[in-house]
Write a structure and sequence with these properties.
The protein contains 28 helices and 31 strands. With 915 residues, it is an alpha+beta fold. Strand 14 (211-217) and strand 15 form a beta hairpin.
């Protein structure tokens, strides 16, 4: 699942989990028994073997209550007089238990543990194992009128006549299946499902499995029945009740129907998603040597404002924000990148997460890491024209390094039990760091061996269908030994275990004595390192490149062992040769060169940057800038290194430089002197890029060209009269008819132009943009997102800004926030105040409450003023104590950053321009 979740504090998560398991009293229907459970895990004395679920809905009549009946076949594993499963929000109207002969078994009563969300069925006899199958049948009522965008809930759209049309959809990951029907709601419990759903005759139902049949009912309704699903966990159960329409393609050998669904007015934007799905699915099946296990898969586009999850990999019925899979005839290659990668992410889950389910949420990274990695790496196979492998470094790799550099970050494998602490596991560690670590092993073993290991992993575990990290380690180890890809003394368990069970990213320090290179490792902390150094250490694959030796530019020259003070390695080099380490970012670590080595690399980069691969230039920029910020020094050398950017024309180095420069600008935005100097420097570096690419979008250009032009406009427009004039002209065009389509370059120009006009004109444009968003001719989801961002950039309505940020995904939000703070000069305090206002008028189970902490934690990275910090503290107190603690940690790091960096950066910039 592609979700927005922020870095979790390992220590605090552990504390919350420990506190959460304090005994709680079961709340019974009419009685209090005092029964206590010592864990949030089900006792698992019983397990389900099959569900038959029937729902009756009236969404077509705008009635949002529904009734349900679930029959759960159960095996007893241990003698017990209780059946314990999950249920929340459902009103149970009848409950009965039958044995394998169909005879009723006496039930004394049923109770609810509200805290643990348990439904406890107290049986009038002792149920014995191996005594046959029991069937628990429950009738219940529930409602989709909920505003947390979880469980079975409602969405809507306005049709061409302006009539509001409603639909019902599901979002069960991680623990919300239980809020829609009683079930055993844990990821390691897999079984089959027969699902039938009644709706109006003018509506239809889609679910995980293919359609089996439709039966007409009285009262203008019909009952849709689906085939039995594969064995799967509850969080993948899904259905859609709507009047959506679709585009479809049926593949043969074997047969597979691929369809994309949306509201009728948006269906013409779905063709590309169907084609992308087809190409990715076949590439994935071939790569892993495994066929997709059903005969159909649906993509469903949900209105962005009604879908906070981003996308969800439900087996056979994948859901997305509509802006992520819509593609119109005027959209460019950049939008294709977005569609392919998000479809690729969710389709990879059909194997990693669906076919192989995590035994518990501790192993969530086995789902999300593979999905994040292969959305790029399989996407590069299915869509080679998009150059997606290169984009891994500018996307997940950068995100992971930023997320994994704090004192409180958790390891990849992390145990917790409660609803809220499980939700916090859906963070950059699960998605991005784990993808980087898996990618590192791909290069360390060689792709052929790694691919073989994953094929073993799928084949060896798919029958059981439930996995933990050691299962992956076993399969990769088998392939590595067969192909002799590791030293005999090493195993995958040792190597990968050092990465999955320890928090943080390594910093490898390199010094040189002739041809002898000396290496040490430590944990990298961006700000406020602890007084006592960490003892973490890893098995690190060290790669390098020289002008005459690239044999080890992606493969490990050697494995740097943990718990060793220093490692020596000899690299024979000519007198004028330089060596770069981790030159393609294949290893998940930063490199700190001794100053003489960094100065020599800086000289060479400015003399002829093309002597280094674009990936190598990228790594040098990112490591040098971040290490300088963590120490508050060496900016003179770093600025000289960045000076070469005036000659850079490749997307990858510029994308990473842009990310870093924007962060610097956001952190010094309230200091007029250094902000002005930094802007002058940025303009100087980016002006040649702006001159090269100009302002006009060119049809047929690559995504890299689109993004380079956008970067140039964002960084250098203020120093160019022609760009400023173009930006003002673009803004004035909004006073007339708003276009139905905007490119990213238009977006960048308009954002800058909006800041060149006065408040009155921005207020007038706000009305024009608001009207355009409601225009039926504007159906493209990405265009709506651009218009929403422009509304946010006016700085007039902080509520609009909040809504815009809330809609964005994990990878997009930091960049958007930086642009709003630096370019559009939107006050962070206004955004925080707007969230506080929204929370004060919404129910505590709203999507704003659910996702509030992640927004606050992201915003806290940019709080530099005392007033901003106080606002964040105030609103954080509305949430659990861990939110306050994490924000305090971030604010402390921000203060240290300011104290450590502002003065040396100012001095270095002043000397740069004096030189």
């Amino acid at each position: 699942m592609q979700k927005v979740r922020e870095i979790a504090c390992g220590a605090l998560l552990l504390l919350v989990a420990l506190l959460a398991v304090a005994p709680s009293v079961v709340q019974a229907r009419g009685i209090v028994t005092g029964r206590e459970f010592d864990s949030y895990r089900l006792p698992n004395t019983t397990v389900p073997t099959h569900y038959t679920l029937r729902l009756d809905t009236d969404i077509h009549r705008e009635i949002f209550d529904y009734t349900g009946n679930v029959q759960i076949r159960i095996n007893v594993l241990e003698a017990t007089d209780q059946i314990v499963l999950h249920s929340s929000r459902s009103e149970i109207t009848q409950l009965q238990l039958r044995n394998s002969a169909g005879l009723k078994v006496a039930v004394k009563n049923f109770e609810f543990d509200e805290d643990k969300e348990f439904l406890v069925v107290n049986v009038g006899t002792i149920l014995q194992p191996n005594a046959g199958t029991y069937t628990l049948e429950i009738d219940f009522t529930n409602s989709i009128a909920r505003n947390d965008q979880a469980g079975f809930y409602r969405s809507s759209y306005d049709d061409d006549e302006g009539v509001r049309r409603y639909l019902g959809l599901t979002q069960f990951e991680s623990v919300d299946a239980r809020t829609s029907f009683p079930c055993y709601d844990e990821p390691g419990i897999k079984t089959t499902y027969d699902i039938s759903i009644a709706c109006g005759v003018n509506y239809h139902v889609r679910s995980n499995a293919p359609l089996r049949g439709i039966q007409l009912l009285e009262g203008g309704k019909k009952l849709t029945t689906f085939a039995t699903t594969p064995r799967m966990q509850t969080y993948l159960v899904a259905w859609l009740v709507s009047d959506f329409e679709y585009q479809r393609e049926v593949l043969t050998d074997p047969q597979l129907a691929i369809a994309s669904w949306s509201k009728p007015s948006g269906v013409h934007l779905l063709a590309y998603s169907v084609d992308a799905s087809k190409r990715f699915m076949r590439a994935m099946e071939e790569y892993f040597g495994q066929r997709y296990s059903m005969s159909k898969i649906d993509n469903v586009a949900i209105r962005d404002s009604d879908y906070s999850a981003g996308a969800m990999e439900n087996w056979g019925l994948v859901t997305y924000k509509e802006s992520t899979i819509s593609f119109g005839p005027e959209d460019g290659e950049q939008r294709q990148v977005g569609v392919v990668t998000i479809v690729g992410h969710e389709f990879t889950h059909q194997f990693f997460g669906n076919l192989l389910a995590p035994k518990w949420w501790s192993y969530l990274w086995l789902n999300e890491g593979f999905a994040r990695l292969y959305q790029y790496y399989l996407g590069a196979i299915s869509h080679p024209e998009l150059q997606l492998r290169e984009r891994f470094v500018t996307g997940p790799f950068q995100t992971a390094l930023r997320a994994d550099n704090s004192l409180t970050v958790r390891p990849m494998t992390y145990y917790t039990e409660t609803r809220y602490s499980i939700a916090r596991l859906f963070d950059s560690i699960a998605y991005d760091k784990s993808a980087c670590v898996l990618r590192m092993m791909n290069y360390a073993l060689g792709e052929t061996t790694f691919q073989k290991g994953l094929q073993y992993y799928l084949q060896q575990n798919k029958e059981r269908g439930v996995v933990q990290d050691v299962n992956l380690f076993d399969s990769l180890d088998q392939a590595a030994k067969e192909d002799a890809r590791l030293p005999l003394s090493l195993s995958i368990h040792e190597i990968l275990g050092s990465w999955s069970n320890q928090a943080g990213v390594p910093l490898v320090k390199v010094s040189r004595n002739g041809d002898e290179y000396l290496f040490t490792q430590e944990r990298y902390i961006a700000n406020d390192p602890p007084a006592t150094p960490f003892e973490d250490s890893w098995w690190i694959p060290i790669s390098f490149s020289t002008p005459t030796n690239n044999a080890y530019e992606k493969l490990p020259a050697f494995w740097m062992p943990p718990n060793v003070s220093e490692v020596s390695y000899t690299i024979t080099t000519a007198e004028d040769e330089v060596v770069t380490f981790n030159p393609h970012s294949t290893g998940y670590y930063r490199v700190e060169y001794e100053e003489s080595m960094l100065r020599e690399l800086t000289v060479r980069m400015n003399r002829d940057h093309t002597a280094f691969e674009p990936a190598t230039r990228t790594r040098l920029i990112d490591d040098a800038l971040n290490i300088a910020q963590s120490r508050g020094g060496n900016y003179e050398v770093v600025l000289q290194l960045l000076n070469y950017l005036q000659h850079e024309t490749d997307y990858v180095p510029w994308a990473v430089a842009y990310d870093n420069l924007q962060y610097l600008q956001s952190m010094v935005r309230s200091n007029e002197k250094v902000s002005r100097l930094l802007q002058h420097f940025v303009q100087k570096m980016a002006s040649p890029l702006l001159e090269r690419y100009g302002l006009a979008h060119r049809k047929g250009q690559s995504a890299a060209e689109e993004e380079l032009r956008t970067i140039a406009i964002d960084l250098a427009c203020s120093g160019s009269k022609s760009c400023t004039d173009g930006a003002l002209a673009a803004v004035h065009s909004l006073e007339g008819e708003v276009r139905s389509h905007y490119t990213t370059e238009h977006d960048a120009l308009l954002r800058y132009g909006l800041q060149q006009i006065n408040v009155e004109k921005r207020q007038a444009l706000q009305a024009s943009l608001s009207k355009a968003l409601k225009d039926k001719s504007v159906e493209n989801g990405s265009t709506k997102l651009v218009l929403t961002e422009l509304l946010s950039s006016t700085g007039v309505d902080s509520k609009r800004t909040l809504s815009y940020l809330f809609q964005l995904g994990q990878s997009d939000r930091p960049k958007a926030l930086q642009r709003l703070l630096v370019q559009s000069k939107v006050a962070l305090g206004d955004i925080v105040e707007s969230l506080q206002s929204e929370l004060s008028r919404r129910q505590s189970n709203s999507a704003y409450y659910k996702n509030g902490p992640e927004l606050l934690l992201e915003w806290a990275r940019y709080a530099t003023e005392s007033s901003e910090m106080e606002q964040l503290r105030s609103i954080a107190s509305s949430f659990d104590p861990w939110v306050v603690a994490e924000i305090e940690q971030q604010l402390k790091a921000n203060r240290r950053w300011t104290e450590t960096n502002v003065e040396p950066l100012t001095n270095a910039l002043a000397r740069f321009f004096d030189a």
